[in-house]
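ok trying again, last paste got cut off:
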Amino acid sequence: MYNSSMDPRSIGMFDSGVGGLTIWRATRALLPNERLAFLADSGHVPYGEKDPDEVRDLTTRITRFLLKQDVKLVVVACNTATVHALDHLRRTFPDTPFVGVVPVVKTLANRTHTGTIAVLSTPATARSPYLTGLIEEFAPDKQVLRVGCDGLEDAVEAGEARRRTTTALLERHLAPVVESDADVVGLSCTHYPFLRGRIKRILGPDVRVYDPSRPVARRVRQLLEREDAFAPPSADPAHTFFTTGDPAVFSRVASALLRFPVTSSYADI
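nice, full thing came through this time. structure:
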């Protein structure tokens, strides 16, 4: 039965490109009645090499676009954007609930047995003061490998997640992790879960790999429950996809990653 306190509006999500679809996928699985509006800023990807001020400007414009789509909350489905822009967005749009994606440092610190953890991220996240603060707060007594994985985000974005060249790139970035005592690894870029199978094969069975997709989806559910803002039951909620890049390219890559047909529209932010 429809409850008048329910909120049929969409959940807004954005990423620098297709990586945030890992968050989209987890949210859809956990909240099947919700409509999701996803924007890929493919026209400005990658974020991992941009100045923080530029990231804040882009994410502000994206949020304004999503609010024009009448979304009820916004998921910043991008680690780099969360690190550099989440606080700014919350100050700029104080009436809008936001959910970000943070490196899973606390989880890694709690789960390691060797005392060595590894964080795979974009170069910008790897060198960010935000990550430094998380390490100082949650893993001050751990040895932490920060692995800035240049090129991986671009490979996924280009639809090359399953190519040998991407595997070779992974092997190069993961070499210091393989050579270390790290027994837990965090995927701190939303593009990387699409590479999780090969990451696990390269690292071997004794290394556990964590990504934030399901914790983010659970946080979205918590906010909707707190605000009494769940959508009414729906047999087939309509989802929308936008991109600042080429809609045909985004639709092709997203369809391959999600394994069902995706049709996107151009977003002028």
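cool. The chain has a mean pLDDT of 91. The first strand starts at residue 11 and ends at 15.
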